[in-house]
Amino acid sequence: MESTAAPPPAPSAAAERDSEHHHGCLAVRTSLPRCALGASSLAGSSDEASCGSPRWIGRGLSCVCIKRKGAYERICMNLTPVQEERLQRLKHRMKVYFDPSRRDHQDALKALWRATYPDQELEGLISEQWKDMGWQGRDPSTDFRGAGFISLENLLFFAKTFSASFQRLLKKQCGNRATWEYPFAVAGVNITFMIMQMLDLQSTKPRTFVRAIFIQMLSEDEWAFDLLYCVAFVVMDKQWLDKNASYMDFNEVLKSTRTQLERELMLDDVMRIEDMPSYSLLC
């Protein structure tokens, strides 16, 4: 899936968390390498290597080792039934393209308008009004190519769940704003795409601890992706203000947003999206 037309165009300190489940291993983070392979074998390998038998787990579960800041750490690939079901459902959402001819997609777009402008009637699915929300043209469907229908679902979830924060960002109500601001709706599509890349959920095996940690969160809350999106949006806007950014800086702001999200997800006491420090920015 290619990135959408958008404004012009990293993990962190390691924290230890050992988490086990009776169905399998969710995610394991250690400060010392525990691979069965010897240090000499690991030293010459790529950043991802297969582990030997994980005898310390006791169930013979398959794992991979990830190199992070010179140390090899383990993620177990086995998923619980709940994790597998919710992960597959999320993957399906990520594969759905926005289809302007589908009635349910049209209805979702209309619902987004009502949630954004409850007192203003929409003239049509193709209208100059959409530019007020930060779409690039009269037809917002052309901006969904990069991230698909899930990016519309994310915006709608944000508008309904955290309406005050949504309106604050939409109207650029806080801070000293740039003369050339980021377009709100298109920025939202880019944030969805950034999170999809960061979590790497389409890969067949785990390659990052951020992915493994997120899948663990998904087993606790099916809406973890949508909640993470809301956090990402307020983090992006805060980064925008902190950097005194303008339109041409958008890609750089998005990169720093991803770095901060990864850092927070890796914190030792973050077990849910709600535990992330930046969650407090939502209201």
What does this protein structure show overall?
The protein is mainly α. Helices cover 42% and strands 9% of the residues. α4 (149-161) crosses α6 (184-199) and α4 (149-161) crosses α8. The longest helix is centred in the last third of the chain and has 19 residues, at 224-242. It is globular and about 50 Å long. The protein starts with 16 loop residues before the first strand and ends in an 18-residue tail after the last helix.
Keywords, please?
disordered N terminus; mainly alpha; 9% strand; single chain; 42% helix; 283 residues; three-stranded antiparallel β-sheet; 9 helices
User: What is the element string, with H for helices and E for strands?
Assistant: EEHEEEHHHHHHHH
Q: What fraction strand?
A: 5-15%
Radius of gyration: 20 Å
Poorly predicted tracts of residues: 1-62, 66-73
In the sheet with the most strands, the strands line up as 3-4-5
Q: How many β-strand stretches?
A: 5
Query: On the 0-100 scale, what is the average pLDDT?
Result: 78
Biggest pleated-sheet summary: 3 strands, antiparallel
By DSSP (H or I, 4+ residues per run), the number of helices equals: 9
Shape: globular
Residue share in helix? 40-55%
Secondary structural class? mainly alpha
The N- and C-terminal alpha carbons lie at a distance of 32 Å
